[in-house]
From TrEMBL:
InterPro entries: His_Pase_superF_clade-1, His_PPase_superfam, PG/BPGM_mutase_AS, Phosphoglycerate_Mutase. PROSITE patterns: PG_MUTASE. Substrate binds at R7, H8, G9, E10, T11, D12, Y13, N14, R57, E87, K88, S89, Y90. The active site is at H8, E87. The lineage of its organism: Bacteria, Bacillati, Bacillota, Bacilli, Bacillales. It holds the Pfam family His_Phos_1. One of its GO terms (cellular component) is cytosol. The keyword Hydrolase applies. It comes from Gemella haemolysans M341. GO terms for molecular function: fructose-2,6-bisphosphate 2-phosphatase activity. Coiled coil: none annotated. This is Phosphoglycerate mutase family protein. One of its GO terms (biological process) is negative regulation of glycolytic process.
Amino acid sequence: MRIILARHGETDYNKNKLVQGHTDIPLNKEGIRQGIAAGKKIEGYDIDIAYSSVLDRAYDTARYMLDNSNSEDNKKLSVIKDKRLIEKSYGEYEGVSFAEYGAGLKAGETRGMELDTDAADRVEAFFKEKYEEHPDKTMLAVCHGGLIRSFLTQKGIKDVGRGVIVNTSVSVLDYDGEKFELIEFNK
């Protein structure tokens, strides 16, 4: 199975450097523009099925990407929301500045955050289930930066560290039901 893993477009929380997590913040004008432009990133792929997080910023980005990819087949695809693709929960950090979040982590304060390992495990379970349903298909999955970083790092696919997963960036993976192979990262 080929997985096209994309991050949602920009929101005002991204712009203002605030932690989002499960807070459902919509795309801003720049995020809409990014989603439309990101359609070009998937033009070379015959996408069979599309999924997104249950949060509107991810769903809307998926829709913009499909509708602007110059593929009539992509435009006809439905985007299926799945709660396993939701961003990591940042607990009490949601809505605070990146600076406060960073200082809290340095002090060892998790404040109810979801563990990276737990987030990565739920994404892996999602892909394993979808592989069993669609082993030879190409999937678009639009979700969130923290979740993508946790998944790639915790599953040993790529050590992203604290690096930024860029808004509307695309990472491409092949998955055989057992292991993931990273083809492209953060493009």
